[in-house]
Write a structure and sequence with these properties.
The structure is a single chain. The chain is α+β, with helices and mostly antiparallel strands. It folds into six domains: 38 residues, no CATH class; 81 residues, no CATH class; 133 residues, no CATH class; 102 residues, Chitinase A, domain 3; 87 residues, no CATH class; 85 residues, Roll (Chitinase A, domain 3), CATH 3.10.50. It contains 25 helices and 19 strands. Strands 16-3-18-17 form a four-stranded antiparallel β-sheet. A four-stranded antiparallel β-sheet has the order 13-4-15-14. About 1% of the residues have low confidence.
């Protein structure tokens, strides 16, 4: 039989061989073949629905840009990532609920909310936060750029902003529809409102005697492992966990200047002060990069408080140390004091580039209002106070100082925005202007200091390389160990910035081991962590220090309460007699059923409030067990002369506590329910670093 004939008779075998060969070729042709068989683009899953890395990363970048625009420049990237992912998880949960309920936002509803005669307040707020006066202007900037003299590249940025706003507005409208659905069903009826009123309508005055558990010795009330096990079984659901818990202790050491560094810095500042007083301007520090000079020209009223206090008592060319805070010196040198107009009141209008600007200015100067020329003026604002001392106003300062008041003109400065025309309404009276050099000097740790801090910590973890000794020996060595818990979704250790590396280390470390040293991005802190234990499964175990402490305390308190109740049961007929038997002083307080705190008692003594509510006036009740004491009381007075029943008010209280408002606050937890959420963010980043 020929070879060709054999191939024809075994087609399945041949296809399998060819498929295997092709697969081997693909595996050898790519850098990371394992990614073919793994889900490498999912940051998290919500009940099987995936959150894609590219969508997540885009949102992270947008959030970072927004924070930077608001002046937050040192926000830890890990904290932003955690915040964004939680938002996306909540949104996914909400979206699944919208789909289940069939909720939709029509094009007409969306258009009305964004560009209607009265845009939705959310839209107006978001647009103004971008620095744009109205949604219509943002839309025109995005899709009618020539009308506003905007170049195509900038128009694309406006389009992206508009599309994001449109998406956010749609989600907001969906949320409003969703919330409105249950607001009607979770609203107080008359019985609900009356129950709230009754809880707060009367106030009972009680005379009481209270014996605290601290009067007993804890060692006299041992707690057995069997008792802990039994209570844990009873309250196990309290300790549910959604993902493994990695229990750490960490030592964080700030890299700060030593005593020697501070002394050297003080000497350098003192020398600089001598030079500043003897030399003109800031020549004495201009060649020293440790000193940063910022020139400020402003009326005394607008200076920073520390500068204001300093310069008002200084003479020209004198210098003084204004402050020393957080290892930073602030020095002020008064360079000059002049008199100048501080501010002018302007009307500003932007003329469409497609119309003749001179004719529009002529109309404005003959009485026409900017608002009446909407076809020619794309934007205008009247009565704007502008500081002529602001750095950006320097090119226009002289022109605005000398311009004729009451007449529009186009500033000759080439840096002004196209189409801008202004009118000076008035000028403030001249004021004294202080020209100040604000000089800062940061005291930074020397190389010798940094090396010593590193060396000391390295020696410590070398000697104490188990979690037990890492903690037990820390105080002796001058360190403070602190507890923390990380999970597979954690990107930080206890919220510390730039601590992702230490959190990642814990996920694959051996129990009892100690990490190496991690530093933050600014080299301002050293961090070491020790892994004490790992809790897996659905519940935090009874062996957990936190759980064990809670269970032990609760069992011991029960035993102490039983002991005190047995000791004082029947020891008196009045509160005064019980107080004498207990060796305490009788006191009075007031109790209202609806309150969480009773004066002279710890928070949340629900057993006291409940017993007072059903006690008969003039009858001694107790001793009864509270959270940390036993008490005997007598209701001496019940005041029912409070406010009258007000349905609107009491219904509002019900809604806040138990109705729609309460539901809305806990909505994310309610939507989670028993859904499975897989947060893979830590593993995801580990795979790429």
């Amino acid at each position: 039989m020929s070879t060709l004939e054999q191939i024809r008779q075994r087609p399945i075998l041949i296809i399998s061989i060819l498929g295997l060969a092709l697969l081997l070729f693909i595996l050898t042709a790519i850098d990371r073949p394992g990614e073919l068989f793994t889900d490498n683009h999912t940051v998290a899953k919500v009940d099987g629905e995936k959150i894609d890395y590219m969508d997540f990363q885009k949102r992270v970048e947008q959030q970072q840009e927004q924070l930077q625009q608001r002046g937050y420049t040192n926000v830890d990237a890990a904290q932003v990532q955690e915040y964004v992912l939680q938002q996306m998880l909540n949104e996914t949960l909400m979206h699944k609920e919208f789909e289940r309920l069939g909720l939709q936002v029509t094009d007409k509803e969306l258009s009305e909310a964004m560009l209607g005669a009265t845009p939705h307040p959310y839209v107006s707020q978001m647009v103004q936060s971008m620095g744009v006066p109205s949604a219509q202007m943002l839309y025109d900037a995005a899709y009618n750029p020539t009308k506003n003299g905007i170049d195509p590249q900038q128009a694309q940025q406006f389009q992206a902003a508009w599309n994001n706003l449109e998406k956010d507005t749609e989600q907001m409208l969906l949320s409003q529809k969703f919330i409105s659905m249950f607001q009607g069903t979770l609203t107080a009826n008359k019985l609900d409102a009356k129950a709230i009123f009754d809880e707060n309508a009367s106030t009972s005055t009680i005379s009481y005697a209270r014996k605290d558990f601290t009067s007993l010795k804890e060692e006299d009330f041992p707690v057995s492992a069997e008792e802990i096990k039994a209570l844990y079984k009873e309250e196990k659901t309290r300790f549910r966990i959604s993902e493994p818990q990695y229990l750490l202790n960490y030592i964080s050491v700030d890299i700060t200047p030593s005593t020697e560094d501070l002394a050297a810095a003080q000497k350098e500042v003192e020398d600089a002060m001598i030079g500043l007083r003897l030399n003109p301007g800031t020549d004495a520090v201009s060649g020293n990069s440790k000193f940063y000079v910022n020139r400020v020209s402003a009326p005394v009223s607008t200076l920073a408080p520390a500068l204001r206090k300093a310069v008002t008592g200084m003479t020209v060319d004198s210098a003084a140390v204004v402050a020393f805070v957080d290892n930073q010196y602030t020095i002020a040198k008064l360079l000059d004091v002049t008199t100048s107009v501080d501010s002018v009141l302007l009307d500003v209008a932007f003329i469409d580039e497609n119309v003749a600007a001179d004719s529009i200015i002529g109309l404005l100067n003959t009485g026409a209002k900017a608002g009446e020329l909407a076809n020619a003026i794309v934007q205008h604002q009247d009565s704007v106070w502008v500081s002529l001392l602001a750095p950006g106003m320097a090119p226009m300062k002289e022109e605005l100082l000398n311009a004729e008041t009451g007449r529009y003109f186009t500033p000759s400065n080439g840096n002004v925005q196209n189409g801008m025309t202004v009118r000076v309404r008035s000028r403030k009276e001249p004021v004294q202007v202080y020209d100040v050099a604000e000089i800062t000097y940061d005291v930074i740790p020397s190389s010798a200091t940094i090396n010593k801090i590193n060396s000391d910590l390295r020696n410590y973890i070398t000697t104490n390389n188990t979690s037990a000794s890492f903690v037990s020996e820390a105080t002796k060595a001058g360190y403070q160990p602190l507890p923390a818990t990380v999970t597979p979704s954690s990107l930080t250790v206890n919220g510390l910035s730039d601590s992702r590396g230490a959190a990642k280390w814990a996920l694959s470390a051996k129990k009892g081991s100690v990490s190496g040293i991690y530093s933050d991005d600014r080299d301002s802190r050293l961090l070491v962590v020790a892994l004490n234990d790992v809790y897996e499964g659905d519940y935090e175990p009874a062996s957990s220090e936190r759980v064990n402490s809670y269970l032990t305390r609760k069992i011991r308190n029960r035993k102490m309460a039983d002991k005190l109740i047995a000791d004082y049961q029947g020891k008196g007929k009045t509160v005064a007699e019980y107080a004498a038997a207990m060796g305490v002083k009788a006191d009075t307080t007031q109790v209202t059923f609806g309150q969480a705190y009773v004066r002279n008692f710890p928070m949340y003594e629900s057993n006291l409030i409940a017993n007072v509510a059903v006690a008969k006036p003039g009858q001694v009740t107790g001793p009864i067990a509270l959270n940390s004491s036993v008490v005997v009381f007598d209701v001496t007075n019940v005041d029912n002369s409070g406010r009258t029943f007000d349905f609107e008010n009491d219904a509002m209280v019900f809604n806040q506590r138990e109705g729609a408002s309460s539901f809305e606050r806990t909505l994310p937890l309610i939507l989670v329910g028993n859904k499975k959420i897989e947060n893979r963010i830590q593993k995801f980043y580990s795979d790429r670093q």
